[in-house]
Write a structure and sequence with these properties.
The complex is a heterodimer of chains A (107) and B (229).
Chain A: H1 2-15, E1 19-25, E2 29-36, E3 39-46, E4 54-58, E5 70-71, H2 83-87
Antiparallel strand pairs in A: 1-2, 2-3
Chain B: E1 3-9, E2 17-24, E3 41-47, E4 51-55, H1 56-60, H2 63-73, E5 78-79, E6 84-89, E7 108-118, E8 127-139, E9 145-158, H3 164-177, H4 179-190, E10 200-205, E11 213-218, E12 223-228
Antiparallel strand pairs in B: 1-2, 1-3, 2-11, 4-12, 5-7, 6-7, 7-8, 8-9, 10-12
Classes of the chains: A alpha+beta (107), B alpha+beta (229).
Chain lengths: 107, 229
C-alpha cells in the first residue's frame, strides 16, 4: 500500500515538473523529495509515533562457556541502587588479595 | 613501593574531569595527601607494587583498530573521535532496566565508545552521537584476566524531521556487527597477560598512571584495567 501510494505521488510530482526525485526507505518510513527551481517538496510516510534516537541491547548469551570467578567492582560498595545512593556515598572498602575471591566489609 | 592515589572528581564520582595525585610510600610506612580545592567526589586508593595496569585508550587507539572500526561503519557513519573508555556502575548502563539481575548492582563495566556523524539529505539535519560497547572485565577460576562484550548502545541528536528511521536501521545493523571484532580485539590485547595468575581486578579512572605527583585527566575519556598478581 505504502509503495503504491508513494509511486502515485512520485508520478504526480513528476507531472508537475519536479526533478531530482529521491526516495529514502527505512523499516518504519518512506520519504520522497523533489525540487523544481527554488521549490521543494517532501512527502514523508511513517508507521507509529516518534522514533527514538537511542537504543541499547544486551548480548543474548555473552557468558556461555566462560568461567567467571571475580568481576571488576569497587570493593566495599553496597546498599540501594541509584543516584541517591551515590550522592550519599561516604564509604570505605577493602578487598582480600590472597585468592580470586572478594569480601565486603560487614554492614 | 606502594602508592597512595587520591582522585578528585570535579563533577561526579568516576565521571568527567579529575585530578589524581600519586604519593609512593615505603612498606610499613604511611603517606598523606592534602587538597585545598572543592570537588564533587573523591576516591582514595592504595595501590600495591604488584599492580599491573592496562590503559584502555592507549591500547585501543592504534591505527589498525581504528581502521577496523571505520571498515565496520562503512558508509553508514563516520567516526569523529578516537576510542574512549569510561567505567560505569551496572545500574548506569543503558540496558540495565532490561535485565537488572544480569550483574551485581555495584559491578563495574567498561564503556568503550566513540563519536560518530551521519550525513543526511537536505530535508534533514545531520546526526551526531556516540556508539558504545559495554565490557565486563573479570578473572576466571584460574585467576587469568579476561573480558567480554556484554552489550551495545547508541545515542544521537539530529536526523529530524524525517531521517531517524533510516539512521536507526543503519546503526541497528552496524553497531551489533562490531561485537565480534571487538571481542577479538579484547582477546588479543589481553593475551599478553593470559599466563599470569591474578588475585584481584578493578578499574581505575583515566590512564591508571602511578607516576608520582599530580595529573589532570578525564574519566569520560579513559579508564584502565588494574590487576594484582
Amino acid at each position: 500500500m505504502e509503495s503504491k501510494l508513494i509511486d502515485g505521488i512520485t508520478s504526480l510530482i513528476r507531472q508537475q515538473g519536479f526533478e531530482q526525485v529521491t526516495r529514502q526507505k527505512s523499516t518504519v518510513s518512506q520519504t520522497l523529495a523533489a525540487q523544481q527551481g527554488d521549490l521543494s517538496i517532501v512527502v514523508h510516510l511513517s508507521k507509529g509515533g516518534a522514533i527514538p534516537t537511542s537504543h541499547a541491547s544486551p548480548q543474548a548469551t555473552p557468558t556461555t562457556g566462560r568461567d567467571i570467578a571475580v568481576k571488576a567492582t569497587l570493593p566495599g560498595l553496597s546498599g540501594p541502587t541509584g543516584i541517591e545512593a551515590l550522592k550519599a556515598l561516604r564509604q570505605g572498602g577493602a578487598q582480600t588479595t590472597g585468592a580470586a575471591t572478594q569480601k565486603r566489609p560487614a554492614q | 613501593m606502594p602508592t597512595l592515589s587520591e582522585y578528585w572528581f570535579q563533577k561526579q564520582l568516576l565521571g568527567g574531569p579529575f585530578s589524581v595525585y600519586n604519593q609512593p610510600f615505603p612498606d610499613g610506612g604511611y603517606a598523606w595527601i592534602a587538597n585545598g580545592g572543592q570537588t564533587a567526589a573523591t576516591l582514595t586508593w592504595v595501590r600495591p607494587d604488584n599492580e599491573t595496569v592496562v590503559d584502555l585508550a592507549s591500547q585501543l587507539n592504534s591505527q589498525d583498530i581504528l581502521s577496523q572500526i571505520d571498515r565496520l561503519l562503512g558508509s553508514h557513519a563516520n567516526r569523529t573521535s578516537g576510542m574512549m573508555a569510561q567505567e560505569r556502575f551496572w545500574w548506569q548502563v543503558p540496558y540495565y532496566g532490561q535485565d537488572p539481575g544480569r550483574h551485581g548492582e555495584w559491578d563495574i563495566l567498561v564503556r568503550l565508545y566513540f563519536d560518530f556523524h551521519i550525513g543526511t539529505p537536505w530535508y534533514c539535519s545531520d546526526a551526531n552521537g556516540d556508539i558504545d560497547y559495554y565490557i565486563v572485565v573479570y578473572l576466571n577460576g584460574a585467576g587469568n584476566l579476561e573480558a567480554y562484550v556484554d552489550g551495545w548502545s547508541y545515542h544521537y541528536s539530529g536526523g529530524g524531521p524525517f531521517c531517524t528511521g533510516g539512521i536507526n536501521d543503519a546503526l541497528n545493523s552496524a553497531v551489533p556487527a562490531g561485537v565480534g571484532p571487538l571481542q577479538t580485539i579484547l582477546d588479543t590485547k589481553l593475551a599478553a597477560l593470559a599466563e599470569i595468575k591474578f588475585s584481584a581486578v578493578y578499574i581505575l579512572p583515566g590512564s591508571g598512571t602511578k607516576v608520582p605527583g599530580e595529573h589532570a585527566e578525564n574519566a569520560d575519556d579513559d579508564a584502565a584495567i588494574a590487576v594484582l598478581s
